[in-house]
């Protein structure tokens, strides 16, 4: 767990601290080289050659005043949109580096630094970018949150209202534990000794392109059963393309939500409301509406996360950029709320970039999915980007994670994720992403809420 020294450092005054710049070419280089061919850099050069996963730049920051610091990276991205990974004193974050042929500065979140020498490392991640320098400046104190707990759906029912109100009541004070799929949640209960507060499920195997090939699901039944125990439900939707699945040895039908597995084109489907593919999209939404009505009738509110990870482009709904993805999200919203009268949903958006955001009138919670094996840091860069996305007016969630965040780091960085949901299988039980001993520490931390600790939330009693 986080050392007492680091935790105290987070609270230390930074009034006398100053901004410092560290040149990449003066750091310790591993697998990369110094370049000078691209004009506009500062110092005596820049670092290039990120083409292997082990490539890195290791900086040493000599800090006079302990505390939280804003970290920025000066970079050039001539090879397209990329990601890098930065680790500071053991806590890491994935950082987006948008394509650019100019030298630009991008926020890399916050880092918690002690007085004296601190280790910061840029690791390759996607690779293929140029790094000029990093800057560190004292973080300004963060004021109270300004989030709303009023659902965007004006006809939201009492169950949905109670859920969003409850999330608002714990926001910044606790984090809800969550686990994707019933079998993995049961593994946590058996092996960790605590049951997560949130069960993550999927509407994937309810639509025709999958049921027609033999798929079936009981996730709605599992949701109703878990909610009856006082738990909270979140649903994703790995939406198999309604038509155009390649269904071959390389891309079998069950991978049909991936861009690579279908020739379904969202732009063509949304070109007008009379083409066959648009009709198929509506049919799939209507099919999911049947299941949502079962949950509504059972008084189960749902944290609903459609079109997740859109900006990644690896799912067909994000394959053609932000505009069609945002348009489809609004179609899903209107079809379910206005046409079908489904009012038990809390709407969760799941991309960070501003140009992908569909609008605060159709989003209750903003979220991100983050996977970094063995890194239990607070993912502060992503959290801060989501904070800026809506000017702190929406609650923020870690909708999918691989490695669980360390509670002390969450508090130290003020990364106030309202819940986390660990992905299933080896992510929770394999030991490489999360050791059992670490999971027990997390689940027994007072900052982390489990099923037994949220009883009565719907009536405001938790």
TrEMBL record:
<dbReference type="Pfam" id="PF02156">
    <property type="entry name" value="Glyco_hydro_26"/>
</dbReference>
<dbReference type="InterPro" id="IPR017853">
    <property type="entry name" value="GH"/>
</dbReference>
<feature type="active site" description="Proton donor">
    <location>
        <position position="309"/>
    </location>
</feature>
<dbReference type="GO" id="GO:0030246">
    <property type="term" value="F:carbohydrate binding"/>
</dbReference>
<dbReference type="InterPro" id="IPR005084">
    <property type="entry name" value="CBM6"/>
</dbReference>
<feature type="signal peptide">
    <location>
        <begin position="1"/>
        <end position="17"/>
    </location>
</feature>
<feature type="domain" description="Rhodanese">
    <location>
        <begin position="311"/>
        <end position="326"/>
    </location>
</feature>
<keyword id="KW-0326">Glycosidase</keyword>
<dbReference type="Pfam" id="PF16990">
    <property type="entry name" value="CBM_35"/>
</dbReference>
<dbReference type="InterPro" id="IPR000805">
    <property type="entry name" value="Glyco_hydro_26"/>
</dbReference>
<keyword id="KW-0378">Hydrolase</keyword>
<dbReference type="GO" id="GO:0006080">
    <property type="term" value="P:substituted mannan metabolic process"/>
</dbReference>
<keyword id="KW-0732">Signal</keyword>
<dbReference type="InterPro" id="IPR008979">
    <property type="entry name" value="Galactose-bd-like_sf"/>
</dbReference>
<feature type="active site" description="Nucleophile">
    <location>
        <position position="400"/>
    </location>
</feature>
<protein>
    <submittedName>
        <fullName>Glycoside hydrolase family 26 protein</fullName>
    </submittedName>
</protein>
<feature type="domain" description="GH26">
    <location>
        <begin position="158"/>
        <end position="452"/>
    </location>
</feature>
<comment type="similarity">
    <text>Belongs to the glycosyl hydrolase 26 family.</text>
</comment>
<feature type="domain" description="CBM6">
    <location>
        <begin position="20"/>
        <end position="137"/>
    </location>
</feature>
<dbReference type="GO" id="GO:0016985">
    <property type="term" value="F:mannan endo-1,4-beta-mannosidase activity"/>
</dbReference>
<dbReference type="InterPro" id="IPR001763">
    <property type="entry name" value="Rhodanese-like_dom"/>
</dbReference>
<dbReference type="InterPro" id="IPR022790">
    <property type="entry name" value="GH26_dom"/>
</dbReference>
């Amino acid at each position: 767990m986080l050392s007492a020294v680091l935790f105290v450092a987070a609270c230390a005054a930074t009034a006398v601290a100053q901004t410092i710049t560290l040149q990449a070419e003066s750091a310790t280089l591993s697998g990369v080289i110094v370049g000078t061919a691209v004009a506009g850099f500062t110092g005596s050069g820049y670092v290039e050659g990120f083409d292997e996963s082990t490539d890195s730049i290791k900086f040493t920051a000599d800090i006079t005043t302990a505390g939280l610091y804003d970290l920025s990276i000066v970079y050039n991205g001539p090879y397209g949109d990329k990601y890098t990974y930065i680790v500071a004193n053991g806590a890491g974050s994935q950082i987006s580096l948008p394509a650019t042929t100019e030298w630009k500065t991008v926020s890399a979140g916050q880092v918690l630094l002690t007085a004296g020498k601190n280790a910061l490392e840029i690791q390759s991640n996607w690779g293929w970018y140029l790094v000029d320098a990093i800057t560190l400046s004292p973080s300004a104190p963060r004021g109270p949150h300004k989030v709303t707990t009023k659902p965007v759906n004006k006809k939201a029912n009492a169950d949905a209202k109670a859920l969003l109100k409850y999330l608002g009541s714990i926001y910044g004070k606790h984090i809800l534990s969550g686990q994707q799929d019933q079998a993995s949640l049961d593994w946590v209960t058996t092996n960790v000794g605590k049951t997560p507060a949130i069960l993550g499920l999927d509407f994937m195997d309810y639509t025709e392109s999958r049921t027609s090939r033999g798929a079936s699901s009981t996730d709605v039944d599992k949701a109703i059963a878990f909610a009856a125990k006082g738990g909270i439900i979140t649903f994703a939707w790995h939406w198999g393309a309604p038509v155009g699945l390649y269904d071959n040895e390389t891309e079998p039908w069950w991978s049909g939500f991936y861009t690579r597995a279908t020739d379904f084109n969202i732009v063509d489907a949304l070109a007008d409301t009379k083409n066959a593919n648009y009709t198929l999209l509506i049919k799939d939404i209507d099919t999911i509406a049947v299941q949502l009505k079962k949950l509504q009738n059972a008084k189960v509110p749902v944290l609903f996360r459609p079109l997740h990870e859109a900006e990644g482009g690896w799912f067909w709904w994000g394959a053609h950029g932000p505009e069609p993805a945002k348009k489809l999200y609004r179609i899903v919203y209107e079809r379910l709320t206005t046409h079908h009268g489904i009012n038990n949903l809390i709407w969760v958006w799941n991309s960070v970039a501003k140009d992908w955001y569909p609008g605060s009138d159709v989003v209750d919670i903003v979220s991100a999915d983050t996977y970094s094996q063995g890194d239990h840091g607070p993912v502060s860069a992503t959290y801060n980007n989501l904070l800026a996305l809506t000017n702190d007016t929406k609650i923020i969630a870690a909708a999918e994670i691989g490695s669980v965040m360390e509670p002390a780091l969450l508090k130290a960085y003020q990364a106030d994720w309202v819940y986390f949901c660990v992905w299933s299988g080896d992510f929770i039980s394999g030991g490489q992403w999360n050791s059992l001993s670490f999971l027990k520490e997390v689940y027994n931390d007072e900052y982390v809420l489990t099923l037994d600790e949220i009883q009565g939330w719907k009536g405001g009693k938790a």
